[in-house]
Amino acid sequence: MYAGHLVEFAEVAAFFEEPLHPYAEALLHSVPNIQLLCS
Question: In this structure, are residues 12 and 29 in contact, taking their beta carbons and an 8 Å threshold?
Fold first, then answer.
């Protein structure tokens, strides 16, 4: 959801592999990667 509206509807795997909406992609990029933090 973005601004109270549904912006993307997809299977879970498809959403994480290739999000269609720029906001969904930004959300996925905002999650910290533990492997990058430990190196």
Answer: no
The Cα–Cα gap between 27 and 35 comes to: 18
Cα separations in angstroms, 36 against 3, 22, 25, 26, 30: 31, 23, 19, 18, 13
The 10s digit of each residue's pLDDT in 1-38 is 788 989 899 999 999 999 999 999 999 999 987 876 67
Contact by Cβ (8 Å): 7, 15 = no
Instruction: Note if the pTM is more than 0.70.
Output: no
What SS3 class is residue 5?
strand
